[in-house]
Amino acid sequence: MPLFKRGDAWWIDIRHGGHRTRRSAKTGNKKQAQELHDSLKAELWRENHLDELPDRTWDQAVARFLEEDAGRKGLWHDAQMLQWLTPHLSGKLLSEINDDIVSAILSKRAAVVVNRTTGQKTAAATVNRHASTLGKVLRRAIKWGWLKALPPINKRREPRERVRFLDAAEADQLIAALPEPWKACARFTLATGLRERNCTTLEWSRVNTALRMAWVQSDEMKTGTALQIPLNEDAMAILAEQKDKHPRWVFPAANGEPIDKASCATWYSALEEAEITNLHWHDLRHTWASWHVMAGTPLEVLQRLGGWKKLDMVMRYAHLAPSFVAGYAGNVKPPSKAMVTNWTHKKANAK
């Protein structure tokens, strides 16, 4: 049906040219919803028959993209990228966004200094994440009939992924330099391996101290799979310290909300004070994993603890555990004559 009601608002459902457009009319007035429906349908007809494109702006595309993807896992990540991109594209028609504009915007992002002390600029991986989000919105605009073709979006070459981790002394120095609640959150990450956002937005409803467990819901996980986190002594001690600080958030900021972003000016100031360079918040997770492997935790167990989907993601830490392969080094011995004879018979019988 072209119009249907969901809650207090009317929704529009149009099928045209093999495509389907479904969106909220944002009104409880059926007559107004019908007028918007007729206007959209006429616009789609003109695009199809007169080869016209509507004069849609970047801002309109972003608004529709966020509306359509509301509730999608990972949307918060795209929203972060759009928060930086939109001021540079605001007011521009989609048809005006060409390869020169795209290249200039990504160059601006690459030139942003993220650490004033060292002069470090935005990493290639971060620039590429902005490029990917830009491409998502423009590809969606093509689907809507608002844009004819995607401009070239050239990504940066990324260096091989590094594994940066702290030793015990460095970790102590960093923790000492961090103020609360960053201090408690960093300690909890080192104790559990939680990713930044999973730690900063951890709620008490996801913690059971009696069972010594915490949970991260599937829609909050990068892999889309829920994670159970066994709590060790360090984690339990940190939770005891945080108790009663806020009824909902485990690590509340001064305004009563979760830390918006851990890797901020506070983080870089602490790094400077601790005299630690080239470290990101996510490297605390690398540190947790590295310490586990060096202490003898099997990689398969580490995979379960850290919530990685594939064992390949854990193999980056294998070099830290010489015992992982050392036990097999002595296997390269010449077989006995009896072993060779037995193997030959088995092979012949198999044929």
**How many E-type strands?**
8
What share of residues is helical? 40-55%
User: For the residues shown, what is the average pLDDT?
Assistant: 85
pLDDT < 50 runs, ≥5 residues: none
Largest β sheet strand count, sense and barrel closure? 3 strands, antiparallel
Helices, by number, come to 14
Walk me through this protein's architecture.
The protein is mainly alpha-helical. It contains 14 helices and eight strands. The protein has helices at residues 30-50, 58-68, 75-89, 99-111, 124-144, 168-177, 182-192, 196-200, 233-242, 265-274, 283-294, 299-306, 323-326, 337-350; strands spanning 3-6, 9-16, 19-24, 113-115, 120-121, 207-208, 213-216, 227-230. The strands form three sheets. A three-stranded antiparallel beta sheet has the order 1-2-3, covered by helices on one side. A three-stranded antiparallel beta sheet has the order 6-7-8. Strands 4-5 form a two-stranded antiparallel ribbon.
Itemize the secondary structure elements and their pairings:
Blueprint (H helix, E strand, L loop, with lengths): L2 E4 L2 E8 L2 E6 L5 H21 L7 H11 L6 H15 L9 H13 L1 E3 L4 E2 L2 H21 L23 H10 L4 H11 L3 H5 L6 E2 L4 E4 L10 E4 L2 H10 L22 H10 L8 H12 L4 H8 L16 H4 L10 H14 L1
Antiparallel strand pairs: 1-2, 2-3, 4-5, 6-7, 7-8
Give short descriptive properties of this protein.
351 residues, mainly alpha, three-stranded antiparallel β-sheet, 14 helices, 8 strands, 47% helix
Quick structural gist:
The protein is mainly alpha-helical and 351 residues long.
